[in-house]
Design brief:
Length: about 260
């Protein structure tokens, strides 16, 4: 029996395997692999926007955000031409500024913030400064100090160092501006049960007013912008803001993050 004839099929088998494996790998890398990668890419973006569309949308949001900041700064520049006290409300950093001629004379930190309402186009809505139209307040614009005159000079000397507060009532007021903006300012931590009760009463009225306006706008099909901003300040800041602003005060607004 010839052993070379028996081993020859095995040699051919090994030869074919040794030749087909490299050739198959080359064909797979050149033809099949790119097709699989393309299919996986289509599967990854299926049901979502294309990469170019996502990039365009992100650029549009960044453009609108910069437009809001530009409008805020331009309004501050316009208000600097006025001799009156103006307000700058920065809802991004929770700050309220009193400004005169573009100079910030008092910075008030917001202790609490609540925003209700809707604005179809923020860029158009805040393009110009808002003008105060109406005020509703629980404190006087010009404080009155009531002092009982001493009976004689001895009593006057005894009372000369007494700290007589101007008022002890709750600080709570609403500033109504044009173009559907209203700003409610409340004292963050009023003293006494009576003041807490009054604050709860005013907040209940404010909530009912907001709900009624939202209901009436939907019922009548109105789409005008209406924004109700509720903030809480310290008692000293709340009084200072109310008594510093003029009758037709101007306000510029920087919207919070995430409104676009």
């Amino acid at each position: 029996m010839n052993h070379e004839n028996v081993k020859s099929p095995r040699r051919w088998l090994f030869f074919l395997l040794g030749f087909s494996v490299p050739v198959g790998f080359v064909l797979f890398s050149a033809v099949v692999a790119p097709s699989i990668k393309a299919w996986l890419a289509r599967l990854r973006w299926a049901g979502s926007a294309a990469p170019d569309e996502v990039k365009v949308e992100q650029l549009a949001l960044e453009r609108d955000r910069l437009k809001l900041e530009l409008a805020y700064l331009q309004n501050r520049l316009r208000m600097s031409s006025s001799d009156s006290v103006c307000l700058s409300l920065d809802l991004r950093d929770s700050l309220l500024f009193l400004e005169i001629k573009g100079v910030q004379v008092r910075a008030c930190s917001l202790k609490a913030l609540e925003i209700n309402g809707s604005v179809p186009n923020w860029v158009e809505w805040i393009r110009d400064p808002f003008v105060l139209r109406e005020t509703q307040s629980t404190i006087r614009k010009k404080p009155i100090r009531v002092v009982i005159a001493p009976a004689d000079t001895i009593e006057a000397m005894e009372r000369r160092d007494d700290d007589i507060p101007v008022e002890k009532g709750l600080v709570y007021y609403t500033l109504v501006f044009d173009r559907g903006l209203s700003l409610t300012v409340a004292e963050s931590s009023p003293e006494g049960v009576t003041n807490w009760t009054r604050k709860l009463y005013h907040e209940s009225l404010r909530g009912l007013r907001v709900l009624w306006e939202q209901f009436s706008n939907k019922l009548l099909g109105r789409h005008e912008p209406a924004l109700h901003v509720y903030i809480e300040l310290s008692g000293a800041d709340a009084k200072a803001v109310y008594r510093a602003i003029p009758v037709h005060a101007q306000l510029t607004l920087l919207p919070p993050r995430g409104v676009l």
